[in-house]
Design goal:
- The chain has 360 residues and is an alpha/beta fold.
- The protein has 2 domains: 1-108 and 274-360, Isopropylmalate Dehydrogenase; 123-260, Isopropylmalate Dehydrogenase (3-Layer(aba) Sandwich), CATH 3.40.718.
- Helix content is 40%, strand content 21%.
- The protein is built from 12 helices and 14 strands.
- It has helices at 14-32, 45-51, 57-64, 92-102, 126-131, 169-184, 200-213, 226-235, 247-261, 299-311, 316-331, 349-358; strands at residues 2-10, 35-40, 68-73, 107-113, 134-140, 150-155, 158-163, 189-194, 220-225, 242-245, 268-272, 278-282, 334-335, 345-346.
- The strands form 3 sheets. The chain has a 10-stranded mixed beta sheet with strand order 2-1-3-12-11-4-5-10-8-9, sandwiched between helices. A two-stranded antiparallel ribbon has the order 6-7.
- Strand 11 and strand 12 (278-282) form a beta hairpin.
- The two termini are 19 Å apart.
- The relative contact order is 0.16.
- The structure holds 3-isopropylmalic acid and magnesium ion.
Amino acid sequence: MDFKVAVIPGDYIGPEIVEQAQKVLDHVGKKFGHSFNYVEVDMGGVSIDKHGVPLTDEALETAKSSDAVLMGSIGGRVGVDSWYQLPPHLRPEAGLLAIRKGLGLYANLRPAYLYKELNSACPLKESVAEAGFDMIIVRELTGGLYFGERKTEEIDGVMTAIDTLKYTEDEIRRIAIKGFEIAMKRRKHVISVDKANVLDSSRLWRKIVEEVAKDYPEVTLEHMLVDNCAMQLVKDPAQFDVVITENMFGDILSDEASMITGSIGMLSSASLGAGKFGLYEPSHGSAPDIAGQNKANPIATILSAAMMLRYSFDLDKEADAIEAAVQKVLEDNIRTVDIMSEGMQLVGCKEMGDCICDRI
Ligand code: IPM
Ligand code: MG
């Protein structure tokens, strides 16, 4: 089959890692008889430099008219890159928020998995690392504090900043359904995370999640307060299968979950909407310190491309082939610098891409 993929290389290591993911996709295409036609889209700092804004209307249209979007990483260093002297709505991150909203990508899937081969990178107690963990955080992505009304103004002579946390029952219901659907394909255990002891939005969240749960009698539902969840993630990560949570909590908890794998360079993510369309990107950032040095780990982006095959194109066999090749590379002791340990073979970004192609 033929697929049109919008590619957003983005900033710093973005172009290097995306190039490797495209190479792997083309390899899979050749082997399984598909062709991927790429159209490049500017977003983030690179778009600011070229067009003065982090995402142009044309760029959004190009993304919309494709079958899926594959992204590297955007943004840079506050205080160093001139992009951060611009007002907030013109900075690189605003492009990411605009594309999420513009494409209706309300469900952000962030798997956090501890590879047996990388156990020693886990910063937690040995007994916790040995038990392993495999969870997926399903983060609401187009509501809550990120998109609520905000302003900064002087009230009675005092500078006051206001951000608004708003959720409608429909927004909660659709993300809850996504979470339960995913749980049905996994270990059938949902932990819904909120702050229902304080926030109205969380109390509505809990009510709607419980309603949705009635349609999934095979799935066990637990509620967990977000502060407790932050603790449980480092105490006993093996208890988590599917976590569903609102935008801001999901932003924070997904960073924590990725940190305890010890290998953020390995973690993929998907942002999905109502249909098959999705945007796929690594969970890590643009790593300005190692950009352009062939040092970045392309695996998170390559695994994001695998997620694209699975979720947007229904190419499960092909996605399996990529994931198995990544597993094989680890078994063969091949490592980029971020996951390097004694006795392993150190390779660069490009070579890692080649090694994965060789194993498909
Ligand atoms: C993420 C990032 C973004 C977010 C930033 C860059 C706006 O932290 O994807 O988690 O907060 O959603
Ligand atoms: Mg984040």
